[in-house]
Amino acid sequence: MIPYGKQSIDQSDIDAVVETLRSDWLTQGPLVEQFEQALCKHTGSAHAVAVNSATSALHIACLALGLGEGDSLWTTPNTFVASANCGLYCGAKVDFVDIDPVSYNMSVTALEQKLQLAEKDNSLPKIVIPVHFSGASCDMRAIHALAQQYGFKIIEDASHAIGGRYLDKPVGCCEYSDITVFSFHPVKIITTGEGGVCTTNDKTLADRMHRLRSHGITRDTDLFTQAPQGAWDYQQIELGFNYRITDMQCALGLSQLKRLEEFIELRHGLADSYDVLLEPLDVITPSRNNDSYSALHLYVIKLEQCDAHRRRQVFDAMRAAGIGVNIHYIPVHTQPYYQAMGFKPGDFPQAEAYYACCLSLPMYPDLSTQQQQTVVDALTDALQQVTS
Ligand SMILES: *Cc1c(COP(=O)(O)O)cnc(C)c1O
Questions:
Q1: 76, 168, 216, 256 — which has fewest CB within 10 A?
Q2: Which pLDDT does position 308 carry in this prediction?
Q3: Which atom belonging to ligand 1 lies closest to the Cα atom of 188?
Q4: How far does the centroid of ligand 1 lie from the alpha carbon of residue 225, in Å?
Q5: 285-314, pLDDT tens digit by residue?
Q6: Which class for 116: exposed (0-12), middle (13-18), buried (19 or more C-beta within 10 A)?
């Protein structure tokens, strides 16, 4: 089976991890801060807080921005459930903004319309989480302008997008957001096994997220709420978690970060080849946008003249041919848990129409030209079988 995504681990990655195993620190050692520094250098952000997953990163980002009961968080339905669940973890209400039918990202027009309505009935969101779907940045300048006007905070869910650029700056620089989150799960662009990070330019937010990562404990006597008991003292001043990342993971992350640029170039080469190879087929290839240089986590096509039944047939034929195609994403509001909260099919028609026709083709740095041809041949056959 050719999978849809896969990590690329070379000898330098293996050596880096093994070296940590022989060192004094397996976790909470020097590599965590080194990894954070390297991420700041890459993104141009002032601070980075590395944690054990992007899901944890989203959770502490929401808490640091003060999300709680009575607040609302809005995100896109075309995402992984984690982008919405973080709001529920904080006791907030979650709602969605429909997508743009060309970029498959959150529609800025739909966002603006929803904000206008929300302003009238006093239900404006506290946080909006745009997701850079497939690695291409949302229109952050426009979303930021709306944030100024309507007074919400922005967390960029850039789980797909490390190595991508927006208006010629690295995604994660937080020029148009409060916090950016990246994921280092193995299917993403670079990996630490499990892992994630928050970047920000706000020191207060960074300090808070560092504290929330480790139980809400501080050793900074200036923050103590009671007199220090001695040099051993640490004080828990709020409720945090164990969301720590290990030195072993950060060793891998540091090594992978060195290979990031090469990974992105390889992904672009593969996307260019797909664009050409798929030209004769009845499929819509991913759009390109001059404002953003995609990290190309995913290569998603849409089938023409499509409905859910036809897409399912193509999906099944591809899987039967040994091609690990996938679907990104089942609209979050149609998940049973969200339907039980009152959402229903039909609520976000663009995301649902997109979902009925989308198909993610294999895309990862080590995918060979020959494998790529195998994918396209299988798709050609599958489309023929289904139409005949
Ligand atoms: C993968 C992903 C996450 C969750 O990342 P983890 O590191 O697995 O917690 C969140 N949002 C999006 C858009 C993702 O693709």
A1: 168
A2: 85
A3: 1
A4: 36
A5: 999 999 999 999 999 999 998 888 999 999
A6: exposed
Beta strands at 153-157 and 127-129: parallel, antiparallel or unpaired: parallel
How many Å apart are CA 94 and CA 67, to the nearest integer? 11
Q: Is 55 in the pocket of ligand 1 (CB under 6 A)?
A: yes
Question: What is the maximal distance between C-alpha atoms in the chain?
Answer: 79
Q: Is the dihedral of CA 150, 152, 158, 162 positive or negative?
A: positive
Measured in Å, residue 123 CA sits from the centre of ligand 1 at 27
The CB density around residue 141, as the number of other CB atoms within 10 Å, is 14
Q: How many CA atoms lie within 13 A of 123 on its CB side?
A: 9
Q: Residue 199 pairs with which residues in a beta bridge?
A: 48, 180
Pairing of strands 358-361, 299-303: antiparallel
Q: Which atom of ligand 1 is nearest to the CA of 57?
A: 9
DSSP-assigned letters across all residues of 332-362: GGGSHHHHTTT--TTSSHHHHHHHHHEEEEP
Number of residues assigned to the chain: 388
- Cβ atoms of 177 and 199 within 8 Å: the answer is no
The residue type found at 245 is I
Phi, psi of 385 (to 5 degrees): -55, -40
Please say whether the beta carbons of 375 and 359 come within 8 A: no
Q: Is the pTM of this model over 0.90?
A: yes
